[in-house]
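Subject: for your reference before the review

Hello V.,

The reviewers asked for a structural picture of the protein, and I figured it would be easier to keep everything in one thread rather than splitting it across files. Below is the amino acid sequence we used in the manuscript, unchanged from the supplementary table.
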Amino acid sequence: MKKLDRREFLQTSLAGLAGLSLLGTGTIVKGCSTPSGFYIDTVKLGSTGLLVPRLALGTGSHGGGKASNQTRLGTEGFVRLAHHAFDRGIQFFDMADSYGSHPYVKAALRELPREKTTLLTKIWTEDTRWYQTEPVAKTLDRFRLETGSDYFDIVLMHCLLRPNWTVDKRGMMDEFSRAKEDGIIKVLGVSCHNWDAMVEAVDEPWVDVILARINPFGVHMDNTPEVVMDLLKKAHDNGKGIIGMKIFGNGDKVTDEEREMSISYAMKSGNVDCLTLGMESVEQIDDAVERVMRNVAG
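And here is what came back from the structure prediction:
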């Protein structure tokens, strides 16, 4: 009898499962698709030169204050989740300082090959009552200790909320650029939570990647879906890598039909290279892999 490797075992075992449930924000949503052996492929991230998995494991669901739904799984639970994601081709971790997810990814990377993994993290750029900014080099040194990685594939300025950031944050942008020159960061970009801030990013040469909120319902977005998609097309045509977030409207749109509509909308647009989803269970991972790759194939 042929001995199956881990991937073949998972493919054979999962193909027989049915009636899965998607665990959302404290609720059970019926109608998850049965895993069918699909695995996430890799795509070009704009003109950055990076090849990345088409789907990232987001680690910031209901995140803030150094915690998220993913970190609340505990280290052992997170590592199990990360292993399963990795085995399904999701070799891409979307982290942030404010999520507190760096040490959890570090634990996963003790068992997963760093050279096959894409790491994205984010640095908060505003002083607040709960966060004080530091020089970028010092922050990155801390991040490297927290993750156990000497470098990051993608680093973003986190959660830009105002326009004119290309002027106001030019000094910080120069610090990021030096880290890129030193090989600590491969590509740079922004996470936008403001329409005017995202408009600025589209034509800013410093920006390699934009993390943008996009779904067909306009939920937790910076403008209407049509207007945002038109802007993302312009950005993508300018060579920016586009990563879609809030695909399920921050967990507000998670019925079977809504999940299918959301993934199809992003994947078939031609303007979104890859997605990040805040998956919290094996069932959610399997469902997302199925939907993403089926929409790509279709």
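For the response letter, the relevant points are probably these. Residues 1-34 have pLDDT under 50 and may be disordered. The domain at 6-297 is CATH 3.20.20.100 (TIM Barrel).

Happy to draft the paragraph if you're swamped.

O.
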